[in-house]
Amino acid sequence: MKQFLKKNKGNIIFLAVLALLIIPQTRTPIQVFVQRLISFSPSETDAEEREQLTDYNWNVTSLDNRRVNFSASEGNVVLLNFWATWCPPCIAEMPSLQNLYDEYGDQVDFYLVTSEKPETVRRFMDKKGYTLPVYIQQSNAPEALYSQALPTTYLISKKGEIVIKETGAADWDSKKTKEIIDGLLEK
Question: Which residue ranges does the record assign to the Thioredoxin domain (predicted)?
């Protein structure tokens, strides 16, 4: 038996990891852990390549059922994140978004937008202790903010320039990101 275990140690470990990835209760935490390991600071888009947001007319609803039009943020620095509670990369970046919100929530307009049911989102936010402003999407976002991938996050300047468009998990609580935001707030 010892000989068998020694000889097949790699195969046994591989099968154990595979089994853990198949079981839904262990798959998500493993995926979140891996996403956090490989998350880096988002990259700023070169000034010449930035897309301009011209249409701010977009309705979303807060978790307390308050209707909000995105146009209220025109002229402000905005961080917009499309996410879902079932999305491992979304879950992985959530702590860094919370930290960024804790630091810049009174200077930057944060929108975490999902299409899920409010009850599902509220349970998730309460369980994790997040205080980020979450909104339920009521209609399609303006064309410049359209993405089919989750998570997708936009950092928008006061002038409506899309300074960062990041698809996938990122480390939003990084020094690099804070320097970008500080620069946008000074303009």
Answer: 42-186
What beta strand segments (E) does the chain contain? 59-62, 67-69, 78-82, 109-114, 134-137, 152-156, 162-167
Strand order in the sheet with 134-137: 67-69, 59-62, 134-137, 109-114, 78-82, 152-156, 162-167
Other CB atoms closer than 10 Å to residue 103's CB: what's the count? 13
Residues 144 and 54: beta-carbon distance below 8 Å = yes
Instruction: Record the tokens describing residue 169, joined without a space.
Output: 């998990």
- pLDDT of the chain, 187 residues: tens digit per residue: 677 767 777 777 777 666 666 777 776 776 667 666 666 788 889 999 999 999 999 999 999 999 999 999 999 999 999 999 999 999 999 999 999 999 999 999 999 999 999 999 999 999 999 999 999 998 899 999 988 899 999 999 999 999 999 999 999 999 999 999 999 999 8
Cβ–Cβ < 8 Å for 109, 184: no
